[in-house]
Give the backbone structure.
Amino acid sequence: MNIAQTEKILFNPLFTSKLLLMALAGANNNKLKVELIYYILPLIYNDIIKNKLVKSTAKSTFNTFLNSEVKMELIVIETLLANYRKKTKEALITLSNIYNVEISDYITLKEEQKTTYSEEKNLILKEYYKAAFNLGSILSKEDYKKIFFNL
């Protein structure tokens, strides 16, 4: 499989929208600040951060998530945000076409989401979904200003 084919799979709007869905499902009250949504894909697609998120739990906080290795990776994430912006917008459009989502200051999943990462049979996908779920949980626990200060 060449790079272009791999990219088509990884950045397929159905897959990226599912990552956003899992992040919203993990968040308190199924909502996240709009600006934080743009960090989900670059954080999840970073292997070091994804692996740390997979090992996290729903009880993890932003402070427990941050370690020296993650902090080094966050420097790289800032430079990638512009590259992921279009893919995140495509994922949001797809998500809003499939699920009842309200977008204002926060992106809110209006219907209770019963699907969780634990139901996924494919182990690779399950890892991505769990990382997104835990990231949503972590991001929703902190004041978004504090998160931006640390990112």
Notes: The CA atoms of residues 9 and 20 lie 16 Å apart. The mean pLDDT is 84. The chain has one domain: 3-150. The two ends are 34 Å apart (CA to CA).
